[in-house]
Design brief:
The protein is an alpha/beta fold and 282 residues long. The protein has two domains: 21-57, no CATH class; 68-95 and 137-279, no CATH class. The protein is built from eleven helices and eight strands. The protein has a four-stranded mixed beta sheet, with helices on one face. A two-stranded antiparallel ribbon has the order 2-3. A two-stranded antiparallel sheet has the order 5-6. Strand 5 and strand 6 (115-118) form a beta hairpin. Helix 5 (150-168) packs across helix 7. The longest helix has 30 residues, at 184-213.
């Protein structure tokens, strides 16, 4: 993927230098006690906060430059900027404004408006604060699943930005309302349709970004398709030693994910990404 000459986004928050504890609430008095302990007794204030708060305080972690991920963070910034340009242009065509999301880089765990999440959650989008959250270590997980190459990672980022598009257009709220009124099986189906649409939006981004800046190199599309296939619910269930249970799917099968990513690539239009109309559910 040709990316190094691309524009860098200004919407990146780098929280990789912070470790976050679960559910910690600190008053001003608690913080004062910790600072006094540091000044008088040489105690580590973060240790005091942990003891008084019942959880791990936010504290410095390893420097991002020490784990060799700075170039990867730079790559993420370029991909995010590309999604900004593509979606800005698309919304502008109909006289609409595209509010850009923030992307938060974190390590190990993060606190968002949607709650506390560990790296095991994988990349996610939080509608409540309209931010994408990403631990760069997920790239290693993608490789373990058989998805190699920089464009595979770009597909993941573009998919999460697709959820932002669903949020600002009101679709996410509508899906959430319908899921709350539905059985678990139907709620899962609605979740699948929403995820497949985000896959289609990722394909749409890739096609339009390539038309704008010629970012794709030979093999990139195949990388994206392999990435979509590698994280299908059916494949993940098989890899975990479970039988395939379609009624429990929340993101879609490998075949579905590949189909909708390819649909976005081929048509490059949000109208073609109507996963809900295609299946016949509201």
């Amino acid at each position: 993927m040709r990316w190094k000459q691309g524009r860098r986004s200004s919407n990146i928050q780098d929280r990789r230098g912070t470790r976050v504890g679960r559910g910690m609430k600190l008053g001003g008095g608690t913080i004062v006690i910790a600072l006094i302990a540091m000044l008088l007794f040489g105690e580590n204030p973060f240790s005091i906060l942990e003891q008084l708060g019942g959880g791990a305080a936010q504290q410095p972690a390893s420097s991002p430059s020490q784990d060799g991920s700075d170039e990867l963070a730079d790559f993420v910034s370029v991909v995010l900027a590309s999604t900004e340009d593509v979606w800005f242009e698309y919304f502008a065509q109909s006289g609409q404004r595209y509010p850009q999301p923030q992307l938060v880089l974190f390590s190990d765990a993060v606190q968002s408006a949607c709650g506390f999440n560990s790296s095991a959650t994988g990349p996610f989008y939080c509608p409540a604060d309209q931010q994408v959250y990403l631990d760069l270590s997920f790239l290693a997980e993608l490789r373990r699943l058989g998805a190699h190459g920089d464009f595979a990672f770009a597909y993941v980022i573009a998919h999460e930005v697709g959820h932002h598009v669903q949020t600002i257009t009101g679709l996410s709220d509508e899906v959430q309302r319908l899921r709350a009124q539905s059985s678990q099986t139907v709620a899962n189906q609605l979740s699948v349709l929403q995820e497949l649409q985000a896959d289609c939006y990722a394909g749409m981004w890739a096609r339009r970004a390539n038309d704008r800046e010629r970012i794709l190199e030979p093999g990139d599309v195949e990388e994206g398709l392999r990435a979509a296939a590698s994280i299908g619910d059916d494949r993940l269930q098989r890899m975990s030693g479970r039988s395939v249970q379609p009624e429990s799917f929340t993101h879609g099968s490998s075949e579905q994910r590949v189909h909708w990513f390819r649909t976005g690539l081929e048509h490059a239009d949000a109208q073609a990404c109507d996963t809900f109309g295609d299946v016949g559910l509201p």
